[in-house]
Amino acid sequence: MADIDELVVQEHLVVVDYFKRRPMYATAAALALDEDLVRGVVAERIAWQAASVPRDAAATRIGWHWRDIVRMGEEGRITQGRGGRYLITDLEALAVEADGEPTGS
Question: Which residues contact 25 (CB under 8 A, 6 or more apart)?
Fold first, then answer.
């Protein structure tokens, strides 16, 4: 569903009705979607999932409490994106910074 939601956000699909509280889309509009567009949306999701972790995994990864991870995301110190996931490279940089080690690029 995440890919369909992204297509809706990008206004490539429009909700035309609901069935049992679930959105429905025009079949013709879905069939008319450009294959490269759909592949791009899927590729972006896969890349984001590979480069990020969910909140609890982020906390475990650097040994912090999940509330600190959320706070750092809200403060913009770590990138939070789709699915409430956090960018791994930001987490690692934050952990190094917290340990007092120099950060390098």
Answer: 4, 13, 14, 15, 16
